[in-house]
Design brief:
It comes from Leucobacter allii. The protein has a single domain, classed as Rossmann fold (3-Layer(aba) Sandwich), CATH 3.40.50.720. Helices cover 35% and strands 22% of the residues. It contains six helices and ten strands. Helix 1 packs across helix 6 and helix 2 packs across helix 3.
């Protein structure tokens, strides 16, 4: 599969890229800082650009079979329009290039998943994560309206632990307390989902 990865330099995106390479996919990464992917320069195609620019995304998207967005804001609690801007750029680029398949990283507690959150989770999502979650909600409205072959991935709190490979994933998962999941397992699932048509048109909640 020819696969475009957005957010390839981030902690989750790195896992997506490695999984794709391990399984023989041809990877193109759109990155503002191509030098951050220097170690992979001989294995992937690196295109410099901004994920919120429709022009940049479209140039990287030409000829791709599918795209995965693992964009994130690291430790920042401000979205600064990253997710809504990237969603607008991706949908316009997909319209121009004809790409259909998209796997998009969100967060558990965004949109309809908030209703399924535990009391502990709700307190966190409605306070210091409020700005980021609001921008992610806007991005999802944009993506769903575009009519793409879309999977939105909703992990619980992310950790840097190793992949377990035994995570729980479903459209709806009952929550208690403040569950977590490793970025390695999220990267594993996102790569799996982009190849598996059973996840088209669905949301995927992930947790340990």
């Amino acid at each position: 599969m020819k696969l475009l990865v957005l957010g390839a330099t981030g902690p989750t995106g790195q896992h997506v890229v490695q999984r794709a390479l391990d399984h023989g996919d041809q990877v193109t990464a759109l990155a503002r800082r191509p030098e951050a992917l220097h170690d992979l320069a001989s294995q992937i195609t690196i295109t410099q650009g901004d994920a919120t620019s429709a022009k940049d995304v479209a140039q990287a998207m030409v000829g791709q079979d599918a795209a995965i967005s693992a964009l994130g804001r690291s430790t920042s609690v401000r979205a600064d329009g990253l997710f809504s801007g990237a969603a607008a750029a991706v949908t316009e680029a997909a319209r121009q290039t004809g790409l259909r398949r998209l796997v998009w990283l969100s967060s558990f507690g965004v949109g309809d998943t908030l209703a399924e959150s535990s009391t502990t989770q709700k307190a966190m999502y409605k306070t210091f994560l409020r700005n980021i979650y609001a921008d992610k909600a806007v991005s999802e409205e944009t993506l769903r309206a575009a009519g793409l072959d879309l999977t939105i991935v909703y992990p619980t709190t992310l950790t840097n632990g190793p992949a377990k490979g035994t995570y729980t994933v479903d459209d709806h998962v009952p929550m208690k307390g403040a569950p977590t999941i490793s970025r390695a397992d999220v990267g594993h699932f996102m790569h799996l989902a982009v190849h598996d048509p059973v996840w088209i048109g669905r949301q995927a909640v992930l947790t340990d």
